[in-house]
Design goal:
By secondary structure, the chain is mostly helical. It is built from eight helices and no strands.
Length: 149
């Protein structure tokens, strides 16, 4: 009996630290992979245009618009781009604006939702959803779903 007890005790302790490390990795690794993939996707220039040409310039905004908050001006400009070009261009410019001016990040979600709703009105739910990508998490897709539902 004493021999069996020692064997069982060694077996449990022998696997304990390795099993704890394995469990920790099993929990942490998927989170790290998802976050790194999301961050990599947000850094991609989806428009294919020259980044210097696609930066939002404040000089293009009318004098009346300058009196409004910067996020409101950006939202209105992007809604016009969505109508004149497509939601993909607007989403790219939204991501570039947030990257260039981090203070806009807190408004990114509401702007992306507004773009999603406008895309449904302009393109219909199926085509609008085809433009969805991880800009401001899934806010664009949320706007599409809210407008469609």
């Amino acid at each position: 009996m004493k021999h069996t007890h020692t064997y069982t005790q060694r077996t449990r302790h022998g696997r304990g630290p390795a099993r704890r490390i394995g469990r920790s990795l099993a929990l942490v690794l998927p989170v790290v992979l998802v976050l790194s993939g999301t961050l990599a996707v947000t850094r991609v220039d989806w428009s294919g245009a020259d980044p210097a040409d696609s930066v939002l310039a404040a000089s293009e905004v009318s004098p009346r618009a300058k009196a409004r908050a910067p996020h409101e001006v950006l939202r209105d400009k992007l809604l016009v781009e969505l109508q004149e070009q497509d939601p993909g261009v607007a989403l790219t410019h939204l991501q570039q604006a947030v990257n260039g001016r981090p203070t806009l990040a807190r408004h990114c979600t509401s702007i992306a939702r507004a773009l999603g709703r406008a895309a449904v009105r302009a393109y219909g739910p199926t085509r609008a959803q085809s433009y969805a990508r991880p800009v401001c998490d899934t806010s664009f897709a949320t706007g599409v779903a809210a407008q469609h539902g």
